[in-house]
Amino acid sequence: MSEPADNGSQTVEAARRALSARLQAAGNDSAELDARFLVGAALGLDLTGMITAAGRAITRDESNRLDGFAQRRLAGEPVARILGMREFWGLPLTLSAATLVPRPDTETVVERALELLRAGGPIDRTLQIADLGTGTGAILLALLSELPNAHGFGTDISEAALQTARENASRLGLADRATFIACDYASGLTGPLDLIVSNPPYIRSADIAGLAIEVRDHDPHAALDGGPDGLDAYRALIAQSVSLLGPNGSLVVEAGQGQSGDIEALMTAAGLSPAGPPKADLGGIPRAVSACRLPR
Ligand SMILES: C[S@@+](CC[C@H](N)C(=O)[O-])C[C@H]1O[C@@H](n2cnc3c(N)ncnc32)[C@H](O)[C@@H]1O
């Protein structure tokens, strides 16, 4: 058993409040939430556990662990990196240094993809899908969790990211329906595919230096850099995807702010038909741009 901390035997609740105040004083605008997650992780408690244990004294080991987490957060490391995991579409995903932290906005891509598949028939039909630049496997695994008879291909240029995606697929019981391939976007795939999704790197190279420290210093550069105008990845993957889509197959990609019009133009120029206006995320930003391959 570990010894209680000798900081006046701070309780779980007092430790949470103290950390929240410390983070807030440092300008963190999600201090309250961050403190909850970090105290929970340092003490091995879920949210209910934190409530029931609120009045107990924290041990010295717990206090030291929490202080380590606090230092990392104050230095700009995102909570998800400190925890080593992030939930996406309700699925717990392990992170690694090679993977982007999946963002809630990206769930808009999953929603649009499911809307298009539902419009084409029962959701439990046999489907072949692909996620280009899969990272943790977030979009692919979210879709496989909703599509019981789909098989999915996840590609990435990073072998280390693919290893993390494979581990996530196994832990979620989806590995038998997921194949991970190291290649440039869709270059290692063969069709026909019913759906291709992607959240590619889309930050303009010159804008990367000005990103928040949480992103610039902690997300992998290969997950961010979209080239001089931010559109390099779209040019590559749209061109590759056209011939892989089956009749009525759909392509759904995530767009950065202000990019949806340019992406639609690239899709149309490649011979695809827009599948409705871009779907907005919860902040109202057009986020999921989609197009279909019409039957010839
Ligand atoms: C913005 S991250 C998205 C990760 C994940 N899909 C998500 O939404 O959380 C882009 C991903 O594309 C990968 N990537 C970058 N260039 C690539 C390329 N040429 N071919 C395949 N994947 C690439 C990166 O390694 C990274 O995992």
TrEMBL record:
Source organism, top-level taxon: Bacteria
Enzyme Commission number: 2.1.1.297
GO MF: nucleic acid binding; peptide chain release factor N(5)-glutamine methyltransferase activity
GO biological process, one term: methylation
Binding site for S-adenosyl-L-methionine: 133-137, 156, 199
Catalytic activity as recorded in UniProt: L-glutaminyl-[peptide chain release factor] + S-adenosyl-L-methionine = N(5)-methyl-L-glutaminyl-[peptide chain release factor] + S-adenosyl-L-homocysteine + H(+)
Location of the Methyltransferase domain: 125-199
Residues the record lists as binding substrate: 199-202
Keywords in alphabetical order: Methyltransferase, S-adenosyl-L-methionine, Transferase
Family annotation (SUPFAM superfamilies): S-adenosyl-L-methionine-dependent methyltransferases
Domain Release factor glutamine methyltransferase N-terminal span(s) in chain numbering: 15-84
One Pfam family in the UniProt entry: Methyltransf_31
Keyword Aminoacyl-tRNA synthetase: no
Leading EC class: transferase
Task performed by this protein: Methylates the class 1 translation termination release factors RF1/PrfA and RF2/PrfB on the glutamine residue of the universally conserved GGQ motif.
Family listed: Belongs to the protein N5-glutamine methyltransferase family. PrmC subfamily.
Protein name: Release factor glutamine methyltransferase
Organism: Bradyrhizobium macuxiense
Source taxonomy: Bacteria, Pseudomonadati, Pseudomonadota, Alphaproteobacteria, Hyphomicrobiales
